[in-house]
Specification:
five-stranded parallel sheet, 13 helices, 27% strand, globular, Dna Ligase, domain 1, 30% helix, alpha+beta, Rossmann fold, 18 strands, 3 domains, D-amino Acid Aminotransferase, Chain A, domain 1
Length: 390
């Protein structure tokens, strides 16, 4: 297909990955009149449940990829670790791939990503150093400590990370990670962690959503506040950085740029996620266009939708922990109580088994003021036995 060909409603779109992000993408696609075929090795996936078909095969299985290519006109991803060579395979078959394999390859390696963001896109990142061998540890600049050692590949939700204070801590963590390539990042005093969802289509049109303020617990996103409680100038700089990175990547699709805001309002890029993001869930209920609708629009070659925010929002993640009481006895969360809250929008992901730390759903509380949205979120948190957001 040609670069700027428009895919009309009734066409079929492909999705690599069957998790909750894919589920919400498939729901947005169906609303706009598109069909979705999922490629996912697991049975009864959340995305597969709401799609036309699921191809149950590994992400690098060429027969499965060929089958997908024969059924769809464009392909997207719902998690960042889809093998870049699989996306190259689909591109060579002549299909539109959003995001492009070259962009995904950059984001799959933290060392390459930090180099690209700082040296190519020209956006600041935290002080860091690559750690590929023990000799790199011996040569580390002591000013990077205390820091966080992260595996260069495959880490998410706090996995593949270790806090380190001394060179020997770094050495021990490096060995515990199997001596795989890592990056050491200086630990900084943060005011806030925020993120920006940016969409870019094949015409080069770019749109950013309002900045989301994010709170993590045990390395997993717990709360997102939209818009972030930051100055307009800081918000504009954050959104500008996200657009700058998307352009430098020649990106087509939806990208999340996670950022640190320091006490002096300096903004540093933390990492990129080449897909919709947990912190963007609130856009479903609080913005004219959701991040998932934007994902459909970029795939189809359509104009991007408005990212205007019509309601204040606070999003609470719901983990599998909420299905267990303090004694570990299984229980069902009080959905009736949550849905009785005015402005509470419940999203459950269709996962069969609730496990601790597993993302099972979220609730977004919207309001006509930041205070109203927060009050509703606190009420929802009390009902779900979650820590109340501040």
């Amino acid at each position: 297909m040609t670069v700027n060909e428009v895919l009309m409603p009734g066409e079929t779109l492909g999705l690599m990955g069957g998790g909750q992000l894919g589920r919400m993408f498939a729901q947005a696609a169906a609303t706009m009149g598109y069909h979705v075929v999922v490629l996912e090795p697991g049975k009864a996936s959340p995305a597969g449940e709401v799609s036309r078909e699921q191809i149950e095969t590994k992400y690098d299985d060429e027969s499965g990829l060929a089958s997908l290519c024969g059924k769809v006109k464009a392909v997207t991803t719902e998690f960042e670790n889809v093998p870049a060579p699989s996306l190259e395979f689909i591109e060579k078959a002549g299909l539109r791939v959003c995001p492009p394999s070259a962009a995904v390859a950059v984001t799959q390696d933290r060392i390459a990503e930090k180099h690209f963001v700082s040296k190519v896109a020209g956006v600041p990142v935290a002080p860091h150093a690559a750690v590929r061998c023990e000799a790199d540890i011996d040569a580390l600049d002591a000013t990077l400590l205390p820091g966080i050692l992260k595996t260069a590949r495959l880490g998410y939700d706090g996995k593949g990370q270790a806090r380190v204070s001394t060179i020997e801590d770094v050495r021990k963590a490096f060995r515990n990670f199997g001596s795989v390539d890592c990056v050491l990042e200086k630990r900084l005093a943060l005011k806030l962690e925020v993120s920006v969802i940016v969409a870019r289509n094949s015409h080069g049109e770019t749109a950013t959503f309002p900045v989301s303020e994010n709170v993590h617990r045990n390395g997993i996103l717990a709360v997102s506040i939209l818009p972030a409680r930051i100055s307009e100038d800081t918000a504009m700089r954050a959104r500008g950085y996200a657009a700058q990175i998307a352009r430098a990547l020649n990106y087509v699709g939806v990208l999340c740029v996670e950022l640190f805001i320091l006490e002096d309002d300096t903004i540093l890029v933390n990492e990129l996620a080449p897909r919709p993001h947990n912190s963007g869930h609130a856009t479903i209920d609080a913005c004219v266009t959701s991040q998932y609708e934007q994902q459909v629009r970029t795939m189809a070659g359509l104009a991007l939708g408005s990212t205007e925010q019509h309601s204040y929002a606070v999003m609470l993640n719901i983990l599998g922990d909420e299905w267990f009481d303090e004694q570990g006895v299984k229980r069902e969360p009080d959905w009736a109580g949550v849905t009785a809250i005015s402005g509470a929008k419940l999203h459950i992901y269709g996962k069969a088994d609730a496990r601790r730390a597993r993302k099972m759903g979220h609730v977004t509380c919207i309001g006509q003021s930041a205070e109203e949205a927060m009050a509703r979120a606190r009420e929802a948190a009390r009902i779900l036995h979650l820590p109340e957001p501040d």
